[in-house]
Known about the structure:
Layout: E1 4-8, H1 15-28, E2 33-37, E3 40-43, E4 46-54, E5 60-65, E6 73-74, E7 77-79, H2 81-98, E8 101-107, H3 115-125, E9 131-135, H4 140-143, E10 148-151, H5 157-168
Parallel strand pairs: 1-9, 1-10, 2-8, 8-9
Antiparallel strand pairs: 2-4, 3-4, 4-5, 5-7, 6-7
Helix pairs in contact: 1-5, 2-3
Amino acid sequence: MGRRFLLTGMPGSGKSTVVRRCVERLRAAGLTVGGISTPEVRRGGRRVAFEVVDLATGRRGLMASVDIRSPHRVGRYGVDVEGFEAVALPALRYAEESCDVICIDEIGRMELYSKAFEEAVKRILEGVKPVIAVVHRRYAEAYRRYGELLWVTRERVDRLVSYIVGRLL
Length: 169
């Protein structure tokens, strides 16, 4: 059952939507799903931060914010590597040990400031469990060897969800 799906595409193409719908459908079918998502936080209609969320427990932490002072920066966001790791690393470990499917949304510049996260991701992608991961397009070629690389567009969201869920069930 070791299927690995790597989703990439332009900003706003629906990558996180594909992951979220896959998680919902897999759970509805009785599978356990763990891992992380990194949703944006908006204030007054503007994106001001990113959280990291443990998909199994719902535990959340702040990963990056316009208000964080950090040597690790992506655009206007300071990245809190320790805050990210405090949620992401236990979430990935739990998913590896206890879940049927592992989701990682996303493997991108902010997340890769954490070497421990990068190592956990490689270990997971070399493992036996099915994985659905969003890979920032800048890293798509570097991660392509770990699974099936799928380009996401708004028009393809429903088809990709059906394809991935169909392969995993």
